[in-house]
Amino acid sequence: MSSLTIKEMIAKRVAMEIKEGTIVNLGIGIPTLVANYIPENKTVYLHTENGLLGVGPSPEKGKEDPEIINAGKLPVTAQKGAAYFSSSESFAMIRGGHIDTVVLGALQVSETGDLANWAVPGKDILGVGGAMDLVVGAKEVIIATQHCTKEGNPKIVNHCDIPLTAQGVVSTLISEYAVFRFKDNEMILEELDKGCTIEKLKEITPANFIISPSLKAYSVE
User: Fold this and answer.
1) What is the CATH class of 6-217?
2) CA-to-CA distance for 78 and 88, rounded, in angstroms?
3) pLDDT tens string 164-201
4) Annotated catalytic residue: which of 17, 49, 64, 111?
5) What is the pLDDT of residue 22?
6) Burial class (CB in 10 A: 0-12, 13-18, 19+), 47
7) Residue 49 annotated as catalytic
8) Among 10, 44, 132, 183, which one is least packed by beta carbons within 10 Å?
9) Residue spans of the chain under pLDDT 50
């Protein structure tokens, strides 16, 4: 049995999606953990919108540098050869289409790939951050999220009913139970955790989805 937490398991599975030689932006929350699971023999350039290209794994406890942080103000490390620049230059990279992949968390994702991840009605809104720019500017959008909220409410729905970040932008969604791909406004189940059945998945997933004829077992190995 894996010793990973649910969030770590999702992050490790997401790391398997990251392609060699790509520039990748990691959002706040579970996406931040992805940096810890990218193999040492894979060359990936991690980007953070506050102005660093070449983000490394999380620093060891007690060895944090308060001046090296990500957009969520969490301490990170910098790989050898990392580049530092202003946030305006960083957003020029994002808006100019120079980010290959962005990994973000989600409040809701619809069956057609709409994403809502920045505002919950009735709660304080701190700002949208770079999410809207990232999902439009990146070539690929991967969502790393737990399948349901802490209250047990589904996150993968027919239609988002909270403010959208963008429409039809999600490429892949990875939760602790499944891996979904989005293509031509349809959601396709590609992988299913061996401890979960299709029936159980449908119970916690109001969104309509197609089962891939080559459905695989979900694995982080």
Assistant:
1) alpha beta
2) 20
3) 999 999 999 999 999 999 999 999 999 999 999 999 99
4) 49
5) 98
6) buried
7) yes
8) 183
9) 1
